[in-house]
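WP5 quarterly update. Target: Methylated-DNA--protein-cysteine methyltransferase. Source organism: Aeromicrobium erythreum. Length: 153 aa.
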Amino acid sequence: MSTRWIDSPIGGLRLHASAGLLTRIEFDAEPVGRRVADPVLDLAEEQLAAYFAGERHEFDLPLANDGTEFQKKVWGELHRIPYGETASYAEVARRLGYEPVVSRAVGAANGANPLPVVVPCHRVVGADGSLTGYAGGVERKRTLLALERPGLF
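Structure tokens (predicted):
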């Protein structure tokens, strides 16, 4: 397993890769250790820098897909929410063929997303459009959404 720290507009991020796949992104990371050469981490760092600069709207990275079948369905649907747009938890549930009552389970799957930013769980909001919980904190969610669509929040 390889790790790398990067600085970003939402604070320090620690990227993890294993077996040629990006496996996890952690918030509130502090710089540690020496920089390790890893092609997946190089690509992830490059694409995240372009995203934060407003030059990239989608990611093309080899991602680990570790989770329950339901989580994987939710995370797959998150990729379908276009850059600069949002969807409610109930809307994501409906898109997956579930009743809106499943929105809490969608929220739980969102919270378990190991690859925030790259798998855009920040684009999921409350039914009234409000910013609801985010593993990285609501202010990070607001920053990411404002980056994608200035004036949205």
